[in-house]
Design goal:
Helix content is 40%, strand content 27%. With 340 residues, the protein is an alpha/beta fold.
């Protein structure tokens, strides 16, 4: 099967200032997307996902590396790339003082669509996305979920070959997010190539046929969600440790020493007050883990055992949990925003 998107060694660095250092947003990012599939770029805030989308949709230029979309080079053939793509950015670009219908028609006119075809296409899309009854209402009266569905409809008006969805469900409530998942799944069944960026583990697991896990501007793991999880042999054992008044280094060394003799567990990692380990049989391993920690005076507040998840895959390849990395990335983005 041919590739709709090809990315090779993309590098992008945002210049620093006297108050903040330069930021390497992409550090050799490489992946490819087969035609007619949903491909997920999964990573925490600040991982470089949106920067990659900006480059692939010709809104930004890389320092080095190449990108091709629909067979066209994003640097040498930007106009051709724009003709074959639809893009839904993190932040909505609709005119909130215009109606839903007017927004879709305006986008179609920008692509040079004939008015008769455009009116029919607008009606088709607004109906398909459950916005038919609200088509002639101004967008400021739409709910968040309705506005996001309008964003997708606008991105599809010219029948693109590839659709970029950059964090399409951020800020939506659970019901609206579920509805958006249904819409994306329906588009995938029609054979549209979709590149989806998300920092929601469940979203990537549910929607993507294949995904690349991105951390600090690089792909650290790639494959189908089921393949990535099945590569994590056994169960995940998660132990919540009590706070130690800031002396994490001493406590962590004690924990590692305590579990060194527990043959039932492996791949022990400590992330703040969370201990993560693997075990062939998690339920049987828990008593030995608790006994070893208690013998060394390490207090435990909770223990859970679960089948492998994408969070475990991320932890294995980066050495920290997805939630911790997401918080770290969010802090970095706020600093970057303050600097600018």
């Amino acid at each position: 099967m041919s590739h709709a998107i090809e990315v090779e060694e993309l590098v992008k660095t945002y210049k620093g200032s006297r108050r903040a250092p330069a930021v390497r947003a992409l550090d050799g990012l490489s992946f490819s997307v087969e035609q007619g599939t949903v491909f997920g770029l999964l990573g925490p805030n600040g991982a470089g996902k949106s920067t990659a989308v900006k480059i692939l949709t010709t809104l930004s230029r890389p320092d080095s590396g190449t990108g091709r979309v629909g067979g066209f080079d994003v640097l040498r053939e930007p106009q051709k790339v724009r003709r074959v793509i639809g893009a839904v950015a993190q932040r909505s670009g609709v005119d909130r003082d215009a109606t839903g219908r007017e927004n879709v028609i305006l986008q179609g006119r920008l692509y040079g669509m004939e008015i008769a075809e455009l009116k029919a296409r607008t009606h088709e899309l607004l109906t398909a996305f459950g916005l038919g009854d609200a088509a002639d209402r101004v967008v400021r009266t739409y709910s968040g979920g309705m506005q996001r569905r309008l964003d997708v409809a606008i991105g599809l008006v010219h029948r693109p070959q590839v659709l970029f969805l950059d964090e399409p469900t951020t800020g939506l409530d659970p019901e609206a997010r579920s509805e958006m998942w249904k819409e994306i799944s329906a588009l995938a069944r029609q054979g549209l190539t979709i590149l989806l960026t998300t920092h929601y583990l469940e979203e990537a697991d549910h929607l993507a046929k294949r995904l690349a896990i991105v951390d600090r501007g690089r792909v650290v793991a790639e494959g189908a969600p089921t393949e990535l999880k099945s590569g994590m042999r056994g169960d995940a054992v998660h132990v919540s440790l009590c706070e130690t008044g800031g002396d994490h280094a001493g406590r962590d060394a004690t924990v590692h020493d305590a579990l060194a003799g527990v043959t039932a567990v492996r791949d022990v990692m400590i992330d703040g007050c969370q201990l993560h380990a693997r075990a062939d049989d998690g339920a049987r391993a828990v008593p030995a883990v608790l006994q070893a920690l208690e013998a060394r005076g390490v207090a435990v507040t909770a223990v859970t055992v679960a089948r492998p998840s994408l969070d475990d895959v991320y932890l294995r390849h980066t050495g920290r949990s997805f939630a911790a990395a997401d918080t770290e990335g969010e802090t970095g983005l706020k600093k970057e925003g303050a600097r600018r």
